[in-house]
Q: What sequence folds into this?
């Protein structure tokens, strides 16, 4: 398989439908896994993450002609994925009588019953700690910790200053440390 060449892919997107289709196939291959895990860290369910990933790529394909190339393809896709995920979480929050940020919403059962989760107790506790974070801090923590995204890329993606992102990440880490300290 050829390495992903963003300039070439963007060029292919500007050509005929067959070329555009091949370029989009490359985009899907390149970004499916990282987008899946970004979504998964926000929704905790494999089925929901898969659905949201599909929705992300459907929305990207539908709007591919509006992609101007001013940002990286990954930034554009992450923005779509985050918006889809936040919309999903807000819909869930409206349906449920319990707050979505409540770690007691059967998170243990959802994680342990999921075939894609290895059941490691520390990982369960980390996910529970992350679930206690406010939405923005959770998103920043996931992007930095799991995706190892640079603050500059996050700033472009989320439309927030680098300083504010660093502060959010620092506060999230402190809250997670506090969560683990309170387990003892």
A:
């Amino acid at each position: 398989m050829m390495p992903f060449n963003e300039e070439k892919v963007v060029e292919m997107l500007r050509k005929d439908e067959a070329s555009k289709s091949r370029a989009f196939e490359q985009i899907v291959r390149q970004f499916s896994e990282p987008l899946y895990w970004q979504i998964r860290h926000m929704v905790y369910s494999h089925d929901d993450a898969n659905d949201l990933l599909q929705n992300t790529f459907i929305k990207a394909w539908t709007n591919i002609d509006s992609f101007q190339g001013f940002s990286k393809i990954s930034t554009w896709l992450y923005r779509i994925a985050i918006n889809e995920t936040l919309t999903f979480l807000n819909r869930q929050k409206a349906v449920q009588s319990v707050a979505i940020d409540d770690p007691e919403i059967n998170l243990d059962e959802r994680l342990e019953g999921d075939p894609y989760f290895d059941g490691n107790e520390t990982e369960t506790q980390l996910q529970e700690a992350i679930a206690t974070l406010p939405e923005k801090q959770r998103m920043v923590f996931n992007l930095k910790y799991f995706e190892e995204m640079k603050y500059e890329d996050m700033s472009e993606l989320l439309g927030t200053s680098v300083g504010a992102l660093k502060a959010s990440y620092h506060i999230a880490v402190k809250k997670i440390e506090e969560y683990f300290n309170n387990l003892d």
In short: The longest helix spans residues 17-43. The two ends are 49 Å apart (CA to CA).
